[in-house]
Amino acid sequence: MRIAIQATWTARGGIETFVYQLMKEFSKKHEVFFFVSYWGNKNIYELPKNVHIIEVPVIPQKKDKEKIKNIFLQNKIQIIHINNTDAVSIAILKIGKKLKIPTVISNHQVPEYGVYRWNSINKVPKIQKIKTLIRNFIWKRALVFIDSQTSLVIVPSLFLKNKLISYGVRKKIEVISCGVDTILFSPKPVGVALKNFYKSEKTILYMGRLDFGKRIDVLIRAYFEIAKKYDNVGLVLCGQDSGALSALQELINFLKINDRVSILSSLPAQSQELINYYRYATLFVLPSEMETQGIVVLEAMACGLPIVAANTSALPELVKPRENGFLFKNGDVEDCARYIEIILSDVDQANRFGARGRELIMDHDIEKVAIRFLEVYGSLIQ
């Protein structure tokens, strides 16, 4: 199959991880043409060598559109898969429609997402809030337009499917997980330990962008309560700064827990170091207000960690209370701390949760996910 995939590379977030994993699987047996626009760091992932990379400007001009059209024709592209709602994706959609090439879009976000970024602990100028609301209005309109141009809409969760329907998207919507490499992300080997990997006997781990919408402030305040009772528990926050780092450091300083909290910059993608941070943690916490699936939760579950997450958006589709972890009331510090403490105080239960999470995540294995996408593509190709 000859597959064209579009994405805008901005930072190592959910969309980039999803696209990278999918191309890695597809390129084993199929020909993949990656139409990429860079908005920041180009070296987010080392792309498979057998993927054809076509760089497209963020705002494509007439000559760029002609180039895309020629590549589609010369290489007899059979299916187009776009992953963003921007000028490039709209241009590719129109070209694909003219050439009668079936097109699918993976929608990974909701228009409200930007609101959550300034909803909580940060003070954002009023003009920024106005800009965000205007952008979200345009985004909703763009979603409905894209709906009219695509053959199929794909989302990673039932939560997002229902959201898109509420916005007026009427095209058929398929739910397919973003997936996780369950061979790469796996529990620590039995009987193997990395001595002093973490400086504390037990470690609470957060992995993801340091973004206001992730509500890391809730986790820090919950940890403050835990730290009063347990002197052998540490907190590690690992991720790229997306505007919240200074505010989070200020909160940590205010609570006087600097010596108990470690903040690490984003680790190399899918590296052994990254995987070990998951494997040797005690539990994983995601207090985010908005997740359309939660790739970091997939990764943590694949590594056998019990999960504590906010009871919001798509997170209840992954976290099953008293089966592989707990869901706490969104934004509730005491509730978050209570469930963290339950896991910290019961090793056997924590191990059961982790093992069950590993079982549940096998349905999200990236090989199975890639096969499902290929089945969808095949159903659209005449």
What's the topology here?
Blueprint: E1 2-9, H1 14-26, E2 31-38, E3 52-55, H2 62-74, E4 79-82, H3 87-98, E5 103-106, H4 113-117, H5 126-149, E6 152-155, H6 158-167, E7 173-175, E8 202-207, H7 216-229, E9 233-238, H8 245-255, E10 261-264, H9 272-279, E11 283-286, H10 295-302, E12 307-310, E13 325-328, H11 333-345, H12 347-361, H13 366-380
Parallel strand pairs: 1-2, 1-4, 2-3, 4-5, 5-6, 6-7, 8-9, 8-11, 9-10, 11-12, 12-13
Description:
By secondary structure, the protein is an alpha/beta fold. It folds into two domains: 2-179 and 365-380, Rossmann fold; 202-364, Glycogen Phosphorylase B (Rossmann fold, 3-Layer(aba) Sandwich). Helix content is 42%, strand content 16%. The chain is built from 13 helices and 13 strands. It has helices at residues 14-26, 62-74, 87-98, 113-117, 126-149, 158-167, 216-229, 245-255, 272-279, 295-302, 333-345, 347-361, 366-380, and strands at 2-9, 31-38, 52-55, 79-82, 103-106, 152-155, 173-175, 202-207, 233-238, 261-264, 283-286, 307-310, 325-328. The chain has a seven-stranded parallel β-sheet, with helices on both faces. Strand 6 (152-155), helix 6 and strand 7 (173-175) form a beta-alpha-beta unit. Helix 1 (14-26) crosses helix 13 (366-380). The protein is globular, with a radius of gyration of 21 Å. The two termini are 12 Å apart. The model is unreliable at 118-122 (pLDDT under 50).
